[in-house]
Amino acid sequence: MSNIGFIGVGIMGNAMARNLLKAGHTVVAYDIVPALLERAVGYGAARGESCRDVAARSEIVITMLPDGPEVEQAVLGAAGVLEGSVKGSTVVDMSSISPLVAQKVGAACAAKGVEFLDAPVSGGEPKAIDGTLAIMVGGEEAVFAKMLPILKIMGSSVTLTGAVGAGNVTKLANQIIVACNIAAMGEALVLATRAGLDPDVVFNAIKGGLAGSTVLNAKAPMVIGRNFKPGFRIRLPQKDLRNALLAAESMKVALPLTSSVQQMLMALMNDGKGDLDHSAIVTFIEEMARTEVKRPEPTKA
Ligand code: NAD
What we know:
Layout: E1 3-7, H1 11-22, E2 26-30, H2 34-42, E3 46-47, H3 51-56, E4 60-63, H4 68-76, H5 81-84, E5 90-93, H6 99-111, E6 115-118, E7 121-122, H7 124-130, E8 133-138, H8 141-154, E9 155-162, H9 166-194, H10 199-206, H11 214-224, H12 235-250, H13 256-270, H14 281-289
Parallel strand pairs: 1-2, 1-4, 2-3, 4-5, 5-6, 8-9
Antiparallel strand pairs: 7-8
Bound molecules: nicotinamide-adenine-dinucleotide.
């Protein structure tokens, strides 16, 4: 059993730290929000005083933070992980961040003799609770092998995808496919509704063909039923696609579809929709067409 430090016990980190405790590991938790740290202490975690304190008391430190700037602050900043960690310990960042930041943090860890993996996840809170996340890992094979038993407590699919940064490149690939899929579905359903068709009938007609997808099956019923309860809040893919565009620019790669959908997400956030489910991307297309995707009114007898 290991002494594991866990920094960032928000929606995802809370469930993940809990699973590590249930598996018998000791967990030292830290979060800048005192009430969230209190919640973790309430179910058996030891109270960390700072990121540095957590690192000094742990052989493995996991971070689950909103984005790259928070990871840089927590690991490289004042009273951060690297001020407390000992040579030979391991930092596993499971946040979804820019691969460029993951590489920067990984290099700073390596310079201090600390091992580093980037290991973002897919699956959301329900899978974090069940311990069935998909975990996409970047780093050295030996470090991956050492961390695998710990990662398997939190995820049912754990894949080494390449060197440090590769985990986040894989996560961004996932996010591009999901967000662009939702936007394409939105255009299709708006067109069909405006043409006077029942969107349910259209969905059922096409879902078994080449246009069918997990995204279509999960999100078309939500849109048609006007249910935008999250799920995965708009503000997260907005951040992810921004990170995809920054990474793409550094490699001189054009991502025209990602760029359009990222602009839609930004507009939706400005419209106060940042906390709706990402299926609400469709509402941007609906507004441009002045057409709402919904079932036709029943005809009066
Ligand atoms: P969250 O905002 O609920 O949790 C992040 C936590 O980090 C917060 O509690 C915050 O107080 C804490 N924090 C921020 N800065 C800190 C610092 N410097 N030191 C210590 N604590 C700090 O976010 P979340 O939904 O748990 O997501 C975490 C990451 O997982 C994000 O990168 C997100 O994109 C990714 N993700 C989320 C989901 C989801 O469905 N929520 C799914 C897959 C991946």
